Amino acid sequence: MSMAEAVTLALRAANKRSEQL
Hints:
Layout: H1 3-20
């Protein structure tokens, strides 16, 4: 996995968490 992919996945997870709140 590239660093860019890791960052993208992290941002997606953060977005999902904020949407649930």
